[in-house]
Amino acid sequence: MAVTLPADVCHQYDRFSLYNSPFVAHDDGRAIDLYPSGAVAPSPVAGTVVETKQVRAPPQPYAAEHDYLLLIDTGEWMARLLHVEPSVVPGDEVGVGDPLGETVRAGFFAPWVPDHVHLEYRDHETNPYRADGSEPLAVAVDVEPLPWDGTGTVVDTGATWARLDAPAHPAPGERFVGLANGGPDDGRGGVVDGGLAHYDAGGLLGHSPSDATERAVVVAGAPVGTATGRTVAWDDVTVLANGDPITGLALFCARDRFGVKLVGDGVDFQEGEDVTVECR
């Protein structure tokens, strides 16, 4: 059965993604990454802290040496959280929104990934230390699909990424939006989530985790994969930005601001530069 994350929990965060990760925990949308607006991580769950554990993370020059695992018993489920240096200890009772600690920039992240809280749910009989074994997740928010024609202007940059101004959020702060599945005039096919196509799979949100229907996935007018239910198998796609190949597109749902994010070591655009993205 799918565990549903309530709307009030989702609205504590600026962004979320079920599929924008290469790790097995996210397979079939069984984990969610929640992006807070600052360094303090508000709890997405209520319950009793069972354990906080320091774990070694893959060494990266931009990341901390260690990450942290937090286990919180919600009564019905065991919540498994990562990427937060805990200010709570075993035995503490926490409520939704209570501070758990500060986010950690972990070596599990690609260099273009912002700090976030990773959340999974497991039944009490499942080993909480294994990388897999969690329940499918759903979110109790309607994500508005934003059509996109593949063009935009760079409004923000980092060493390995650039964010475009398109598609623009129509009402920042009011609701969650995401990239529409389809061409520039088609927003009816769900919202595309995940790393296109640098991760093995992506997501097509707006459909039930138990839905087995196959659907074509189209980004900027080009076919990029096939969704079975809400999990997308990407085609052998190359993403081009102004004619040059890049690692891919990092896609997510956001309520603060929006715009397609271009990622990879070769992403070297300046603010104000116009970009055309193609998927071939």
Automatic annotation (TrEMBL):
Recorded superkingdom: Archaea
InterPro entries in the cross-refs: DUF8155_C, DUF8155_N, Dup_hybrid_motif
Domain DUF8155 intervals: 4-138, 144-279
The protein, known as: Uncharacterized protein
Biological source species: Halomicrobium mukohataei (strain ATCC 700874 / DSM 12286 / JCM 9738 / NCIMB 13541)
